[in-house]
Specification:
Residues 258-355 form the FAD-binding FR-type domain. It comes from Amycolatopsis minnesotensis. The protein is of the alpha/beta class and 518 residues long. Helix content is 42%, strand content 16%. The strands form 2 sheets. Strands 1, 2, 3, 4, 5, 6 and 7 form a 7-stranded antiparallel sheet that branches.
Length: 518
Amino acid sequence: MSVVDTRRQARDRALSATGPRASLAPVSVSAVTVFGAGFALWSCALLLALAGVLPFWVTVPAQSLATIAMIVVAHHSIHHTSGRLTWVNELLGRLATPFFAVCGSFPLFRFVHLEQHRVLAAGEVPATWRPDVPWWRLLLRWLAIDLAYLVRYLPRRSGRPRAEIAETAVFTLVWLGTLATVVAAGHGPEVVLLYLLPQRLGAVAFGWYVFRGPRHEPARPHRFPAAVYRDRFRKHHRKPAIPCHRRATAPAAPATTGRFRELAVSEVRRIAAGATSIRMAVPPDLRAEFRQGPAAQVIVRPVAGGRHRTYVPCPSEPGTLTIAVREADDGPVFADLRPGDRLSVRAGTGRFALTTDPGAAKHYVAVAGGSGIAPVLPVLTAVLAEEPQSRFTLLYVNRSGASTMFAEELTSLAAGTDGRLRILHYRTDERDPDLHRARAPKRADVVAEALAVSYEEYHRGRLTETRLRTLLEARLHPVTVDEWFVCAPHGLTELARSVLEEHLVEPGAVHYERFQPG
């Protein structure tokens, strides 16, 4: 898979659900430094041992320490934290792999490691892969870490890219063949003492320290860096979204502000099959409280009391507040609502925080399903209006065109922004007219048809894992996307989360909003 390298200047990210996001440099100085130090230590120990200057009992611990450094670099590269540039992570990961593995490949380790995170979070991880296994299992696992990963990978190779399988086979055969050749030439002891033994000891030392080292240390103002990294690694092992390279920030839960206010309904309008918009008038003294834009939310309930629901205000005229509801879910609450009726509304804060920059040139991507478009629409309109050089790609899943919320508004935005907004529609109803728009060509408009540019695409069926993976390997490659926004039903949200993790999208760049069917 080819990697598109873009030379974008490092710029501050928008506030996400996990608080202020730390900016990741194109190349991580710490990762390069650790790799350089490990390589230098390994090389010097090797040369001094071969020259007879230092005994093996000195060089073996030194090379074991270098192995630990290479494992750290490879782990950071797996999670795309050795730099913002993809090729930097690919290069450092591949260069570090031979220092702790004799079989497998960096892509293999990446796939199995990320899968390990997913199954561990789901509670389905095999006993031998758990961090709390008996000490002898932990010892065996890290003593043959490359073999353990290879055994885990082989049953799953059928669904993996051919390039990944080929690289794994070539790396394993070439590396094992090289070692066998050196041993056959009479240098077996050197291979064991200068390569295999320090490699295995370093892997065991890393695994033992991280998973079996001290767990309760007294608070100290200046802790040893290795202890800090160990604690962060353990937190990362339990929660992969927390990176090892920096302190994690606790997620910010949606907040509510103020109290319930009674607002008068000014308009009730059908916007799609089974969907209605409700517009309410906001008095001047409450307009600051009921603001619009990204991250705004409102909690709505009948004046008489009862069940309340949370909505994201839709873009509307100043002095008004508009929400979109699905009749199937909110029918019992708003079935008989008419202009002049009143609703109890309270302001809140969602997770789609966004700080726009008029000078930014970013690429945003959103995945929305059904009414999940409601939290995305304010983000989309804010980006298009306030960042003239930025662009937005929307992956929008619905049953049919008739049930698509804000279809006309989105089409108008796409047509009026000269390609800065591109929409990929996925329709699950095979009878949807939008999927059968072909018409008989007319000679008079052949040139016009050829030159016509459409900023909306229609695809038959769901947004599947294969489709999303294909997009991330081409037009939506992670290196070309700055921020991701996801609001969809649980199945689609988890699919997007899995594919984004697989493609090493930095967790801080992905924002998830809680989906509500209504």
